[in-house]
Each structure stands twice: as C-alpha cells, then as structure tokens.
Amino acid sequence: MKKNMGSADRIIRTLLAIVLGALVLTGEVTGTLAIILGIVAVAFLATSTISFCPMYLPLKISTMKKTGKVG
User: Fold this and answer.
1) Most buried of the four, 12, 48, 54, 68, by CB within 10 Å?
2) What sign has the CA pseudo-torsion 13, 60, 54, 31?
3) Which residue has the higher pLDDT, 71 or 2?
4) Distance (Å, whole) CA 9 – CA 45
C-alpha cells in the first residue's frame, strides 16, 4: 500500500472520529445512526493511522504533498 493521505487529511479524519465517537459514547446519537457513525469513526481512525484511504484509489486521489524532486 502506497500512502495517499497527507497530514491535514489525517488530522481532520482523526478529529472527526473523536467527535463522532463522543456523540455515540455520550448517547447523543442512538440506534442505527449510532452504529453507522461508530463504524465511520473506526474507519476514519484506521485510515488516518495507516495513511492510506482505499476510496482514493479508484479516483486516483492523493492528499500527500508533492515533493520537488529535480531529475
């Protein structure tokens, strides 16, 4: 797996996962929506931890900074 997530993307996903997890754990969101948000939070944490998002592959997206390599 080639990394395709930059620092800003990882930070945003981690913060969103924390917010979603807090909503679920405090009982602000319940039922099916809580389950879905919990799964999304875990996915966000997992992808930000490994710096790879499988959804970016088919779209050929990368949020990594381009390095200024000169041949």
Assistant:
1) 48
2) positive
3) 2
4) 11
Q: Residue ranges of the domains in the chain?
A: 7-59
Contacts of 24 (CB under 8 A, 6+ apart): 34, 37, 38, 41
Q: Which amino acid is at 57?
A: L
Q: Is the pLDDT of residue 5 over 80?
A: yes
Residue ranges of E strands in 1-71: none
Cβ–Cβ under 8 Å, residues 21 and 41: yes
Q: Could you tell me if residue 16 is left (phi over 0), alpha (psi between -120 and 50 degrees) or otherwise beta?
A: alpha
Q: Residue 48 has which token pair?
A: 């930000």
